[in-house]
Structures are given as C-alpha cells and as structure tokens.
Amino acid sequence: MVKNWVKQPQWIALAIASFLFLGALGLWRSRHSNTYTQGVDLPYAEIEPQTIALDLPEESGRSGGLIVADVNNDDRRDFLVTKPGYLAVYDNSGEKLWVKETDIHLTGKAESQGLPGLHAAGVQVGDLDRDGNAEVLFLNSNNILHVVRGDTGETQQRITLTSPEGARHWEHLVIANFRGEGDRDLLLQATNALGYRMGRYLAAYAIEDLLGADNPQPLWTRDDFIANAHNGARLADLDNDGKHEVLGAIAVSPDGEISVKLPVKGHIDALSVADVRPDLPGLEVVALEEDGDNRVFLYNGDRLLWQTHYKYQEPQNTAVGEFDPDRPGLEIWARSRYNEDQKPFIFDANGELIGEYEMANVAPRGWTLRGVEVIFPIHWTGERRELAAAKERHRSGDVALFEPMSGKFVLRIRERADRLYVADVSGDWREEIIVLDGNRLRVYQNPDPNPNPDRPSLWTQDHYRRSKTNWNYYNP
C-alpha cells in the first residue's frame, strides 16, 4: 500500500508543494516577525535619566510634541510639551511651572489635516516686547493667536487673525527676523483647504503691529509658496545679512520675494539647514524630493549648488552633520522609504555618493524591521565627529545612536519613545537625548567627561535655535 501511494504522481506533487509551502511560510514568519532576529548584538546602555512626571493625559496619538526654550529667564532651557488640549511647561530641573488646558492647534498628517503636522509642538517662545520676560505664542483652531507669559502661563493677549482666501485658518507660526531688528516679526502659514494640503499661504507681520494695532497689516504675503509637504516652513539667515529667509522648494527673501526656486517634479519631503560648504559664505539648505526624480538638492541664498539622486530611490529622511571629519564640509545621510529593511546612503558636500548599506546588516537584534525614524544629528561625545539619534520606526520603542557613515549602532536605550528630541539642556554644549513616553519625560545625558568643555554653546547659532523650536517628524 505504501509503495503504491508513493508511486502516485499526484501525491508526490502534493508532498513537494507542501514542503515548499511550509518552507516559504517559515521564511515569511522569519522575515515578518517585526524585528531583526539576526541583527547585531548590542546590549542596552545603563544611563540613569532625569525623569519628569508630566501633569498631562497619557494618551497623545501623533499630534503634539516638545521643544525646549528659556521661559523663566534663568539662562537654562526649559521643557514645553503639547498634547491636544494641553500645553505644559516644566523648568530645567523638572519642576512644574504651569499647565494650561486650552485649544492649541495641533494636527497629525499635515497633507490631510493641515499644519503643523506630526510631532510638531505648535508653540514659539520669545521676548516679544523686550521687557526681559519671555512670552509663549500659539494658535488655536478658531484663528486666534494666544500670547501668554512664559514663567506663569498667564494669558496676556488673544488676537483674532484674518485668514487668507483659500485656507481655513492660520495653522503654523514661527518667530522671525525679517527687518533686521531681532526676533520682532512673526511668520504665519496655512495650507489650502481642499485637496492635498501644503502650506502655500504665508504672511509676515511685525509683532508690535499684531499686538498693538487695531487693524494690523502684514509686511508681505504670498499665496504661491512651494512648501515642504507634511512640514511647516523653515527659517534661516542664509547670507549672514541679519535677516531670515523662508525655506521650502523655493527660498523667499526677508522682503517676501523669491530668491531661489528648485526644479522639483514631485514635492519636498524634508529640509535641513547647515554650513554644508564652509568654503562658501553663509549657510546651505539640503532638500529631499519625493516623486519625480527623487533627488537631493543643495542650495544657498543665491542659487542651486547641485542636485543628485541615489538610483532614483526616494530619500525620505535626512541628517546633515560632521559625520566624517576627514572630508571637507558636512555629510548628508538619507534613507530610503522602504517599509522594511531600509537602505541608507550618504553624499558628501559636493553631492558625490560616499557610502551605502543595508539596515539589516547593522541594526541591533530585536530592532524593528521598519528601521529608524525621527533622525537627529547629535553632538553626544564632545568630539568633532557627530552621531545620529533615532527611534524605532512606527512604534513607541527603543532609542539608539549610530554612526551615519557605517550604520554602526553604538548606543541603545530601552525605551517606549512616543517622541524623540535632541538638544543641549545640560549646558555643556553637548546634546542630550530627550524622550517623551506618554506622560513621562526622560532626559539622557552622556555620563562621560566632556573632552572639549570650552566649545561655544550650540544655542549661539541662530539656525540651531530655529531648528530646535520649529520641527516635526519629517524635519528634526
């Protein structure tokens, strides 16, 4: 009977098919177990963080975020955390200054919900009237600009704004310097009300007009800004003239005129500002294109310097920094948007490809197959070479530091990070890893001695201050 069964061709075919199916199923399970099972063996770091229990609801979704700024004028950076319906402020030591239950305008996906977008805090901090006290500014969903005192949260003014035709209301705000008088101006931005939403509407105001005039008039407006998708406009003084440009796929001068326009075919997904080319005056802008030719652009205040691509694959997120001190200028790290097994690639300051690798070969064992997200360059060691900080992608997970050039992970922290933020809050110019987990804030500081303690604070750099108070998921 057995011999007769084995000799039947249909049973042989079924046995082979079953064997192949079970093998494929095992392979699929291995590949889709959500984490790398054959990754690098990297133990968790034992760093005791500063932990701050926040007087906020634990649920946050993907709306709201955090920034640091000096709100109580003690020359130390304090923590501002936003969640839908709440704004909380804690001082540098972790003491609660105030929590405000309020209608602060926050969103998730900017392309469908408008700005400020995923993980964006939606707040700005500055001494608007030069009285020595910081103010906190935010918008609500009814087109009202709120101005509150930084150290107490006391409301000082509520200003009703007029939104542009074609937009629902103003959604994003950035303190700016358009007139060369310091942080005395305000940029407002809004997306189109219908269709795929991008921040095409801009209005620049003198803050004293907004605060004091009965009918404040803008310094200038535009309804054709080619914005980053998913992101608010970025600001920087590219040409060192003491005034800010507004940056996206076009650069808008301090007086509202277009100075640079990129030949984009799709849209800009992410944008970073840095001194990429120290051989040139001023700063440069790295912009990543989605769709079209999926290019990486470098431009300054005058012109497009170069454009390139990596096999026409989308460079979805980027980190720009001194990743290889032996090379002139800064390096530009980007990663593909693959849903699993990302493939980072690196360009030098002249747009030449200088590195590429697969995340599967460098990620720690147990790290999500989806790779990394919220990628910050970070001055962690105190040496000239920078690292990159990131969290596990698409989940509340671990945080790690890695070497962008090689992909080597050098530090892993067991976490449940909903938000990741990087900034110098200790005051030794190195940067800390700041994690928001539900209603807990944790600050991780490098416990090793700083080998170069006399370097100037990063906060003295205007473009650093702008990036740390105006960021979201796509643009750390």
Description:
46% of the residues are buried. The protein has a single domain, classed as Methylamine Dehydrogenase, Chain H (7 Propeller). The protein has 476 residues and is mostly beta strands. The N terminus is likely disordered. The chain has a four-stranded antiparallel beta sheet, with no helix packed on it. A four-stranded antiparallel beta sheet has the order 2-3-4-5, with no helix packed on it. Strands 6-7-8-9 form a four-stranded antiparallel beta sheet, with no helix packed on it.
Briefly characterize the structure.
This is Rhamnogalacturonan lyase family 11 C-terminal domain-containing protein. This protein has 476 residues and is mainly beta. It has helices at 2-6, 9-31, 110-113, 207-212, 462-469, and strands spanning 50-53, 66-69, 78-83, 86-90, 96-101, 123-126, 135-139, 144-149, 155-160, 172-176, 185-190, 201-206, 220-222, 234-236, 245-247, 250-252, 258-261, 267-274, 284-290, 295-299, 304-309, 317-321, 331-335, 344-347, 353-356, 372-378, 387-392, 397-402, 409-417, 419-423, 432-437, 440-444.
